[in-house]
């Protein structure tokens, strides 16, 4: 029986293990060892940066976390930096989750429609134009979205809210306590801005995932007499669902951390939003609003603690994304 031999350029045994790393650093051509040391150092630098970020956020918020407790600070309802110096992050956690998931619910279908139109329905030249314009939305600075929100979106939302408010006042007065003042600045405006901002992220990743569907799979379904919609439903979406979910989770992470545009249109109050029309605040917006004005050490520490929980929330979202992608990708653990 012959035994296969490994060429000089083949990967060393023990790939991904401590022995493999040691062999790559100590043996082989000097250029390979130098390049491997460079990429290893840069990769470990990313890990170190994430670890230091978490550590410094926790250290910066330690005063507030020790004063109110990890759970007490997270579930505290009162944020009063002026009189009582009591700080609880729950209104901002609620505002972050409400605006982010509502924006995600609004953005998924438009993003998936863009991805399918570009890859399956549009002629090549039109698909390129639509893909370019969709990607361009991701490059627009968030402060521009905020300005557009203030001068265009908020007046439009205010008009809709006023119409609903007047209708409720005449026909269903009991609804008024749930609607809130028709100011335009509030959760609804923040949700709409966020939805527009995250569409390109989902659309881009979904487009790439759909393009990875093997042509043989499409042709096999077409050969059975299926229509284009049936091909999309039975062959493309099931195969690409792992990538599509990854794009959705990426968009969610983007929405959770969005700061400037949301700060400019959400109304910025220290209470849990009472309705879709009411004002609120998110974890990122309260940091942006109050960080430069915080003169008390406890207030400053509380803002950093909010950032620490926002970091943990982002980590949890990414871990959930990896788990979902592994579960939904054909081949199970291939992703």
From TrEMBL:
It is a multi-pass membrane protein. It holds the Pfam family BPD_transp_1. This is Phosphate transport system permease protein. Gene3D superfamilies: MetI-like. Residues 93-321 form the ABC transmembrane type-1 domain. Its main location: membrane. The gene is pstC. CDD domains: TM_PBP2.
């Amino acid at each position: 029986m012959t035994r296969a031999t490994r060429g000089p350029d083949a990967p060393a045994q023990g790939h991904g293990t401590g022995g493999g790393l040691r062999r790559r650093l100590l043996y082989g051509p000097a250029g390979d060892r130098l390049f491997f040391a460079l990429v290893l150092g840069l990769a470990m630098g990313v890990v170190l940066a994430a670890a230091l970020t978490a550590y410094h956020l926790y250290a910066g918020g330690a005063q507030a976390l020790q004063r109110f407790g990890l759970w007490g600070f997270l579930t505290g309802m009162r944020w009063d930096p002026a009189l009582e110096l009591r700080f609880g992050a729950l209104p901002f956690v609620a505002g972050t989750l409400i605006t982010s998931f509502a924006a995600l619910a609004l953005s998924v279908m438009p993003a998936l429609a863009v991805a399918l139109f570009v890859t399956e329905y549009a002629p090549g030249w039109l698909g390129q134009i639509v893909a370019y314009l969709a990607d361009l939305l991701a490059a627009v600075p968030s402060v521009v979205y905020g300005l557009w929100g203030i001068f265009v979106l908020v007046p439009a939302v205010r008009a809709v809210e006023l119409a609903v408010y007047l209708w409720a006042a005449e026909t269903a007065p009991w609804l008024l306590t749930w609607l809130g003042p028709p100011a335009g600045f509030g959760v609804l405006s923040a949700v709409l801005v966020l939805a527009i901002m995250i569409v390109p992220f989902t659309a881009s990743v979904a487009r790439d995932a759909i393009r990875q569907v093997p042509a043989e799979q499409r042709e096999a379904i077409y050969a059975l007499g299926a229509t284009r919609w049936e091909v999309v439903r039975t062959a493309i979406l099931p195969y690409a669902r792992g990538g599509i979910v990854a794009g959705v989770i990426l968009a969610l992470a983007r929405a959770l951390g969005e700061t400037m545009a949301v700060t400019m249109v959400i109304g910025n109050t220290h209470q849990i939003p009472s309705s879709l029309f009411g004002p609120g605040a998110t974890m990122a917006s309260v940091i942006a609003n109050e960080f430069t004005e915080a003169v008390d050490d406890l207030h400053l520490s509380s803002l950093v603690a909010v950032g620490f929980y926002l970091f943990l929330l982002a980590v949890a979202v990414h871990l959930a994304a990896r788990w979902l992608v592994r579960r939904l990708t054909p081949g199970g653990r291939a992703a």
